[in-house]
Amino acid sequence: MLQATDLSVEFASRGRRARAVDGVNLTVGAGEIVALVGESGCGKTTLARTLLGLERPAGGEVRYAGAPLSYRPRDLKAYRRKVQLVLQDPTGSLNPRQTVYEAVAEGPRIHGLPNEEEVVAEALSRAGLRPPERFFLRYPHELSGGQRQRVVIAGALALKPDVLIADEPVASLDASVRGEILALLLRLRDELGLSALVVTHDLGLAWNIADRVAVMYLGRIVESGPTEQVLQDPQHPYTQALLSVLPESQQKIVLTGEPPDPTRIPSGCRFHPRCQLVMAECSTTPLAVLPAVDDHQAACLLLKLGR
Question: What PROSITE patterns does its record include (predicted)?
Answer without folding.
Answer: ABC_TRANSPORTER_1 (PS00211), ABC_TRANSPORTER_2 (PS50893)
